[in-house]
Design a protein that fits this description.
Layout: E1 2-5, H1 20-28, E2 32-36, H2 47-52, E3 56-58, H3 61-65, E4 69-71, E5 88-91, H4 99-108, E6 111-114, H5 129-146, E7 168-172, H6 176-187, E8 191-196, H7 199-208, E9 214-217, H8 220-229, E10 232-235, H9 250-255, E11 261-264, E12 285-288, E13 291-294, H10 304-325, H11 327-333, H12 335-338, E14 341-344, E15 347-348, H13 351-357
Helix pairs in contact: 5-6, 10-11
Protein name: Alanine dehydrogenase
Keywords: NAD, Nucleotide-binding, Oxidoreductase
Function: Catalyzes the reversible reductive amination of pyruvate to L-alanine.
Length: about 350
């Protein structure tokens, strides 16, 4: 199979969809991999490293897009819609929050497979997990940075010092991203509480961290009270394929402390804070009701060396399956991969995405 790897175009998106090691694995299996010149440089991978791995460096953007299977990291941006074809596209799509992209994919006849809806029988998301781990850790680091008064925050140190209070950090959602955000905040010395609707998950977290991370059953009343007292609130709610629910309402935001920081990891799916809107690494925050809102839509793009390797580690087995068998046979052999199909034949094939876009 002919596989294309374009460069990413989102603001400060340094990731690339395939490492040289992944390229080597595919070419050793008889596939042809064409990588756009310079696509891996921000992640630390030179064109020469891809060539040494058996890849072919191309200089034409359209050529990188026009292979049998196109691999990306982030969803196509509007200026990339012109490159969409009736080939296969495997990437993060987040279509519930991107109706124009869905329409462009349908019009182009693209077979669009989303990393974020590939789902194992235990309901885990193997291709979203590594980026959720990274985004969770970054969220606490960015929260700590923006809590400084010089960054517009309350002037609170996450761990405080003896004789002063620690920062109060509230996590909305106890999944992969929420857990990693909590662990990082705990490591910085903060007072950490996770809210989740799943009592079994809260029990699991309580045992795993020996009670050092507080757990609360999520409901609007308890969450509102916690948000009003928090210094940092991190939202990491996820419903695979669907728009994120707005669990932190505008009314809650109005009660928050002046200079509190709100980090919305769920922004790719529309955000779980009312009033959230996508921001960029160049301009990551905005103020709303006297709080600092951080809603960068490609947080792992800030650490491309780590993120690219983590992503390829997860995606490569699925890429190889598609390349070796073709989409139909690969999907028939792997129900988890089959759930990644969002659009094919000019139609939305994922019921949750279809409902979100209706």
């Amino acid at each position: 199979m002919r596989i294309g790897v374009p460069a990413e175009t989102k603001n400060h998106e340094g990731r690339v969809a395939l490492t040289p090691a992944g390229t080597h694995a595919l070419t050793e299996s008889g596939h042809e991999v064409r990588i756009l010149a310079g696509a891996g440089e921000s992640a630390g991978f030179s064109d020469a490293s891809y060539t040494e791995a058996g890849g072919i460096i191309v200089t034409d953007v359209a050529e990188a897009w026009s292979q049998d299977l196109t691999l990306k990291v982030k969803e196509p941006t509007p200026d990339e819609y012109r490159y969409l074809t009736d080939n296969m596209l495997f990437t993060y799509l987040h279509l519930a929050a991107a109706k124009p992209l869905a329409e462009a994919l349908i019009e182009a006849g693209t077979t669009a497979i989303a990393y974020e809806t590939v789902q194992l029988p235990d309901r885990s998301l193997p291709l979203l997990t590594p980026m959720s781990e990274i985004a969770g850790r970054i969220s606490s680091q960015e929260g700590a940075f923006h809590l400084k008064s010089t960054s517009g925050g309350r002037g609170i140190l996450m761990g405080g010092v003896p004789g002063t209070p620690r920062a109060s950090v509230v996590l909305v959602g106890g999944g992969v991203a929420g857990e990693h955000a909590a662990v990082t905040a705990l490591g910085l010395g903060a007072d950490v509480t996770i809210f989740d609707v799943s009592l079994p998950r809260l029990r699991q977290l309580d045992v795993a961290y020996n009670g050092r991370i507080k757990t609360r059953a999520s409901n609007p009343y308890s969450l509102a009270a916690a948000v009003a007292e928090a210094d940092l609130v991190i939202g990491s709610v996820l419903i695979p394929g669907a728009a994120a629910p707005k669990l932190v309402t505008d009314e809650m935001l109005r009660t928050a402390k002046k200079g509190a920081v709100f980090v919305d990891i769920a922004i790719d799916q529309g955000g779980c804070f009312e009033g959230s809107r996508p921001t960029t690494h160049d301009d990551p925050t905005f103020r709303l009701h006297d709080v600092v809102m951080y809603c960068v839509a490609n947080m792992p793009g800030a650490v491309p060396a780590t993120a690219t390797e983590a992503l390829t580690n997860a995606t490569l087995p699925y890429i190889r399956r598609i390349a070796d068998l073709g989409w139909d046979a690969a999907a028939a052999a792997d129900p988890a991969l089959a759930q990644g199909l969002n659009i094919a034949g000019g139609e939305i094939r994922n019921d949750i995405v279809a409902k979100a876009l209706a």
